[in-house]
Amino acid sequence: MTAGVQEVVVYTRPGCPFCTSLRAGLRRQGLEFTEVNIWEDAEAAAIVRGIADGNETVPTVVVGEWQAVNPSASSVLEAVAEHAPDLVPESKPGLIDGALKAVGLRKES
């Protein structure tokens, strides 16, 4: 387990359907994360290139030492459970609440 992991970072870019899908899946599960747009942050783009073999492939997710390019929401949650257990949501949102969070109509509480 990585000590001191304080956040889940999801690197994205506008218009990316895979990013939209991952964000929705993570929100549906109640996982809080920090989203970074690589088109607005040159340092973030460099981080993604370092992880994705020189490409700016998104979504790219970092949880402590764990890194993945285009992971599923379930694999991100598994990584969080292993590397940052304090960040695992205490409970899953209900069906309606999870759906509203997934589409961005309800903020994390």
From TrEMBL:
Q: Which Gene3D superfamilies match?
A: Glutaredoxin
Alphabetically, the GO molecular function entries are: electron transfer activity
CDD domains in UniProt = NrdH
Q: Which domain of life is it from?
A: Bacteria
**Which Pfam families does this chain map to?**
Glutaredoxin
**GO biological-process terms attached to the record:** cell redox homeostasis
Q: Which SUPFAM superfamilies match?
A: Thioredoxin-like (SSF52833)
Q: Where is the Glutaredoxin domain?
A: 8-64
Query: Record's PANTHER family?
Result: GLUTAREDOXIN, GLUTAREDOXIN-LIKE PROTEIN NRDH
Q: What is this protein called?
A: Glutaredoxin-like protein
Give the taxonomic lineage as stored in the record: Bacteria, Bacillati, Actinomycetota, Actinomycetes, Pseudonocardiales
